[in-house]
Amino acid sequence: MQLFVNDLTVIDFSYCCPERGIVGESWIVDVLLDGALNEMSMVLDFAVVKKQIKAIIDDAVDHKLLLPMKNECITVTDSLHQENHEYVDFISERASYYLQSPKCAFAKIISDTIDVTSVTGHLTAIILEQLPQNVQGLKLTLRPENISGDYYHYTHGLKLHDGNCQRIAHGHRSTIHILQKGQRVAALEKAWCLRWQDIYIASDVDRVEKADIELSNFAQHNLTSDHHYFSYTAPQGRFDIAVENKVLDVVDCDSTVELLADFIARQLVADNQGEVTVVAFEGVGKGAIANA
What we know:
- With about 290 residues, the protein is of the alpha+beta class.
- It has one domain (about 1-175, about 200-250).
- It is built from 5 helices and 17 strands.
- One of its GO terms (molecular function) is 6-carboxytetrahydropterin synthase activity.
- Its EC number is 4.1.2.50.
């Protein structure tokens, strides 16, 4: 007997790509369970699927930075600055990134690449360990939202958030609607999607000097004049990141979707685009609207 739940959850995360750098992503999760009926004539109660399995998935990968541990571009070591924190040194073809975060902010995937196959295998093994014995099979389908139009991948962190959004390197795959006089303007949408293609969005208020950043010894010896430094302390711990200028956009606000929508709208007005409405999405099916 099989039981399915489509659109069980959406995982918003970032991952280290040897070619593209740190990439924000959003995947929809579908679940198919295979097993014998239990004493309630069910494979598994829908309430358990929706609550327990979703919670396992969220804890494993949601709002984390996914690390391909078999790839030589990644080095992970224990922090010498903060207890229960780790350094991540990541050198991609596009840029180099250096981080310190609490260990819970990283998901270590035993693979040389982060893709649907490797993440599906990682999650399947974790979930099966926690399901009842009558559940004999599990099929996860991870899929991006079907977007007709332009979209961008971005990574950020929200220091004022008391949940997992505080993690300094989690991200989203998002679309944007920009309207003038009630009509979408494809050229403006495309321009912003190009600007924020595989970008790290940082808040200027979180900028720190090089002397105040906490990174590995390797990172300290390999930082360049192109790196910018951001750090903050949130409920889960201290977060630090060094990002090269070419993969960075620094905004004059926090990077909540509400303020990003307002930031884009203000930028468009400053560029003499007239009155605009910006519908900015944060991942799948949620976002904010700003008018300027």
